């Protein structure tokens, strides 16, 4: 039987700090935690004691769109090779906005693992909150 791992997928320092807080609680409860970093504005030093393994995926989002799409197309097979995910594992991601995040979630689901989106004010809340509202929330 493989050990169950909770993976956190982060893109920036805000998400990393929350992942660290949650990982500390999980480690205290005896759970294993891992980190998938797709850095956009992630400048924090990553804690290899708290997260094991740490997998870093470089986003092609900064490239011109044609080159970026070619890199994203190749990312699917790289993700399958680099993510040692089993059906016992769980992915917690903070945003769906980065395409690599979506591809990682798909990889988890293909392996019958769980994937959960922890909404941090991304597209799912940003768009409704920017529209004119006739009624207050």
Please identify the structural class as seen in this structure.
alpha/beta
| Poorly predicted parts | none
Q: Give the DSSP E fraction (strand runs of 2 or more residues).
A: 15-25%
Give the termini distance in whole angstroms.
Answer: 47 Å
Average pLDDT, all residues: 86
Q: Characterize the biggest β-sheet.
A: 5 strands, parallel
- Which overall shape is indicated by the principal axes computed on the Cα atoms? globular
Total count of strands: 5
Q: From the alpha-carbon coordinates, what is the Rg to the nearest angstrom? A: 16 Å
State the helix count: 4
Helicity, in percent?
Answer: 25-40%
Helix and strand sequence: EHEEHEHEH
Strand order of the largest sheet: 3-2-1-4-5
Keywords:
137 residues; alpha/beta; five-stranded parallel beta sheet; 21% strand; globular
Structure commentary:
- With 137 residues, the chain is of the alpha/beta class.
- 39% of the residues lie in helices and 21% in strands.
- It contains 4 helices and 5 strands.
- Strand 4, helix 3 and strand 5 (114-117) form a beta-alpha-beta unit.
- Helix 2 packs parallel to helix 3.
- The model has no long low-confidence stretch (mean pLDDT 86).
